[in-house]
Specification:
The complex is a heterodimer of chains A (about 350) and B (about 500). Chain A has about 350 residues and is mostly helical. Chain A is built from twelve helices and no strands. The longest helix of chain A has about 45 residues, at about 10-55. The mean pLDDT of chain A is about 85. In chain B, helix 5 (about 100-125) runs antiparallel to helix 20, helix 6 runs antiparallel to helix 7 (about 170-195) and helix 7 packs antiparallel against helix 12 (about 260-285). Chain B is of the alpha+beta class. Chain B has 21 helices and twelve strands. In chain B, the strands form five sheets. A three-stranded antiparallel β-sheet of chain B has the order 1-2-3. The two termini of chain B are about 50 Å apart. The chains are: A mainly alpha (about 350), B alpha+beta (about 500). At the A-B interface, helix 5, helix 8, helix 11 and helix 12 of A face strand 1, helix 5, helix 6, helix 8 and helix 20 of B.
Chain lengths: ~350, ~500
């Protein structure tokens, strides 16, 4: 019926475009829905893991073994009063958690969860993640400023200094991976790992992997680098004045950032959804396991490592943290790039 | 002056830390002037928990003020009770029996372990080691349960009494305490594996809040806070009270006087205290638990038993001829069982009478009397049986004497000789001193408490200046503040 208005080839192209948009929308809904569910249960997982490490049980009351606790928490935060400090900068105060949360969630779009499941397969995936993670700092800094509170202000300052300096170390640690894979596309990085003799880049790039792990902990503001929100010094840091669901946005954003960092480690160092060829050679039936399962196992192993650190070590002091970042991590990462480059040229 | 500096004047940021803050251990308020993250000036403000315990002590008799000392350092209430009792005993000039001394030493050291556990837990939590906090509370809970076993209370115990202890300890309790002393030394390494050699812990504590031995003495620091600087001053060794001269223990000292040394000192004290408790259990002699000083201590209850025991089935009765109708007994009766008009003989309603004997010791005209075995009889029958008090059996007369003493002791308190006394004891936080001035009445003319937390707070600015904001937290933890004791 459209023949008179539009040419058949154009209609064909339009239909294809429509289908593509539809598929992208479905993917977004799936990733957001499942992603948020994972975030909710990451909090439950954390409380259970730390609870058992500290000779207690963790949540036990809501649902069997406290399984409904994250939902109860979400509901509680949703219905709480949203308090605005008297001298706060109102529009900016409202905007900050949205920026923080959005910056964290956009990153989900370029993470390849399985061999053909990624929302946006772009060629500069790695750089895109850095750029957006850098955006998240604005959320932190703005919230610290707009609250008009000294504690939030110090927390915001600390956080922006910390996240910026550790982003450098993290970026440098990933350069080795880029050199080895020859691409910034996350899918290509995973494929390059599958085809290499190591199976995963954590083996040749072990130095970079260690640096990345440390920087990732600092980047997501977790113990022992949780200075911006150091409970015993700054009470809660940059979001001390937030309440209700705005507080929940910061909380969720932090956990999403954690999952993003774990996914990034999985994709760049642990071989993404693949398993190393030397393992499937010995145990061939493991090939039948779908890639998404491997991906999730690796991500949760990394997240478990986060929790384990939190239950074990005390907190660094601010100047010590900066000293580690600038005096140890960045020089070592630079040296790693030089060595990787030389090996790449010589071999 | 450059243009930029003239327009934008640079000032220190003035931050108010507390009185509501998770790391100030109560309601300490510190006003910090910070230049970036460096501390330029610290001003502590105390008094948010002031309850006037010293003044209250002056309006109560000596034994009534004892429960107030629980509320000073509520983390180690037992040690405070002992400090108060030792001071009052010196003022009264009474000697505590051997068994009570050993029991006191034992529970005092239990309080020391409980206090240091809470200190370690919060100190580690402030620096960020969360797991140590929960491990420590597991053992602290065990000690509090043991306290509950001896006296029924967990925190505000009031177990030691002037002249001894409240009640004897059972063999069952001693067995469970012995089990604790066997188990506890294996728990200390659990905390130490987490933080003792931890690189971050060392970075946060070594070289923080350094204070030399001389300066520490000048600031009046005592306890582990002083011993961390290398001064082996411990009142338990230098002026032993209770049974400390009969047990073996060492006084651990540090060398550099930084936060880490003070931490190590307290960790060593865990082991020493554990050792003292074991020795006390092994050496515990038998004998009485209260001093035999009728003027100054409560008499055993069985001396009053001929009158107050419910199985005796006495009835109290007013002899009409002797009663002048003064109304003393009517006002004193807690059950309001006595009726009557002024200047006319009063009457007891037998069905309301509790048999407490308050009227019996109140009556000055020998009108109130006891009818042995008269419970449940009618008034007419009682008036037939009743005799005036001076004709009562010898046993009841003797008990009446004790009962009167008991009433005077509880209602007014013992009269105390003139003079003043200062006695210091080693509580977990340092030197707790009590100073009493007695003017010969039942109440102290002046009661003054030298509390370690208050004096340690004054050293806080000295420890913090030049360090970073995060070190303030470490320094508050290391001097082991309890604001209840600081503000009193």
């Amino acid at each position: 019926m459209f023949e008179n208005i539009i040419r058949p080839e154009a209609l064909d192209a339009l239909t294809k475009f429509g289908i593509n948009v539809g598929i992208a929308l479905i993917k977004i809904v799936v990733v957001l829905g499942i992603g948020l569910l994972h975030v909710a249960y990451a909090t439950y997982f954390e409380r259970k893991v730390i609870g058992h490490m500290q000779v207690r049980l963790g949540p036990m009351r809501v649902g069997p073994h406290g399984l409904l606790q994250p939902i109860a928490d979400g509901l509680k935060l949703f219905f709480k009063e949203d308090i605005l400090p008297a001298n706060a900068d109102k529009p900016v105060f409202y905007l900050a958690p949205v920026i923080f949360m959005a910056a964290a969630m956009v990153n989900l779009s370029v993470i390849p969860f399985a061999s053909n499941f990624v929302i946006a397969d772009i060629n500069v995936g790695l750089l895109f993640i850095f750029a957006i993670a850098g955006m998240g700092v604005y959320g932190i800094f703005i919230s610290g400023w707009a609250s008009n509170s000294k504690y939030a202000f110090i927390g915001g300052l600390r956080s922006s200094a910390q996240v910026l300096s550790y982003e450098i170390a993290m970026g440098l640690s990933l350069v080795g991976v880029m050199i080895m894979a020859g691409s910034l596309n996350l899918i290509d990085i995973v494929k390059a790992q599958r085809d290499s003799i190591y199976g995963m880049y954590a083996i040749p790039q072990i130095v970079a992997f260690v640096i990345f792990t440390i920087a990732a902990v600092a980047e997501t503001n977790r113990t022992p680098f949780d200075l911006p929100e150091a409970e015993s010094e700054l009470v809660a840091g940059y979001f001390v004045e937030y309440s209700g669901f705005r507080f929940a946005l910061f909380f969720l954003g932090e956990y999403i950032a954690m999952i993003i960092m774990a996914s990034l480690a999985t994709v760049c160092f642990l071989g993404g959804w693949t398993i190393p060829w030397y393992i499937t050679k010995v145990l061939p039936f493991l090939k039948l396991v779908p890639g998404i399962i491997w991906f999730l196992i690796k991500v949760y192993a990394f997240i478990f490592f986060y929790f384990w650190i939190r239950a074990t070590v005390p907190r660094y002091r601010y100047d010590q943290l900066m000293a580690i970042g600038w005096k140890i991590l960045i020089p070592v990462a630079l040296a790693n790039i030089v060595v990787t480059g030389l090996v790449k040229i010589l071999l | 002056m450059p243009e930029v500096e003239r327009i934008f004047e640079t000032r220190e940021l003035n931050v108010n830390m507390g009185p509501q803050h998770p790391a100030t251990h109560g309601v300490l308020r510190l006003v910090l002037d910070i230049d970036g993250e460096t501390i330029v000036k610290v001003t502590p403000y105390v008094g948010y928990l002031h309850r006037g315990i010293e003044k209250l002590g002056e309006s109560l008799s000596y034994f009534q003020a004892l429960p107030l000392t629980d509320r000073m350092d509520y983390v180690s209430a037992m040690a405070n009770n002992i400090g108060y009792c030792v001071a009052v005993e010196k003022l009264f000039g009474i000697e505590v029996p051997e068994r009570a001394k050993f029991i006191r030493t034992m529970v005092g050291e239990m309080a020391r372990i409980a206090n240091h556990l809470l200190w370690l837990a919060t100190h580690a939590l402030d620096i960020g080691a969360m797991t140590v906090f929960l491990y420590c509370f597991r053992e602290r809970e065990w000690i509090l349960e043991l306290f509950e076993k001896i006296c029924g209370a967990r925190l505000t115990v009031t177990y030691p009494r002037i002249g001894g202890v409240r009640n004897d300890v059972s063999q069952e309790f001693l067995d469970s305490l012995y089990k604790f002393t066997e188990e506890f030394p294996t728990r200390i390494p659990e905390y130490e594996t987490l933080i003792d050699k931890n690189r971050i812990w060392l970075k946060r504590t070594v070289g923080i809040g350094v204070i030399s031995a001389e300066e520490a003495i000048n600031y009046g620091l005592t306890g582990p806070t002083l011993r961390g600087s290398g001064v082996p001053y411990d009142i338990r060794k230098h002026a032993p009270y209770d049974a400390y001269d009969k047990v073996d223990f060492e006084v651990p000292v540090g060398t550099k006087g930084d936060t880490y040394d003070r931490y190590r000192c307290r960790m060593m004290e865990f082991r020493q205290s554990n050792n003292i408790i074991r020795q006390c259990i092994e050496k515990l002699p038998s004998g009485p638990i209260m001093a035999n000083a009728p003027k100054f201590t409560l008499q055993p209850k069985d001396k009053m038993m001929p009158i107050t025991h419910p199985a005796k089935e006495h009835a109290f009765f007013i002899v009409e001829k002797a009663c002048k109708g003064c109304g003393m007994c009517m006002r004193a009766c807690p059950a309001k069982a006595i009726f009557g008009e002024k200047k006319k003989p009063h009457k007891i309603k037998q069905e309301l009478c509790l048999g407490c004997a308050t009227c019996f010791v109140t009556c000055k005209f020998k009108a109130l009397t006891i009818v042995p075995g008269g419970k449940g009889l009618s008034d007419e029958k009682l008036s037939e049986l009743a005799v005036t008090p001076d004709k009562l059996p010898e046993e009841i007369k003797k008990a009446q004497g004790h009962l009167v003493e008991h009433f005077n002791y509880v209602k007014k308190g013992p009269r105390v000789p003139d003079g003043d006394v200062y006695v210091a004891t080693e509580v977990p936080k340092g030197e707790l001193g009590f100073y009493f001035v007695s003017d010969g009445s039942e109440k102290p003319y002046r009661m003054r408490v030298r509390s370690p937390s208050f004096i340690h707070t004054s050293a806080l600015p000295r420890l913090c200046i030049g360090h970073l904001v995060a070190d303030v937290i470490a320094n508050i933890g290391t001097i082991d503040l309890v604001l209840g004791e600081c503000d009193r």
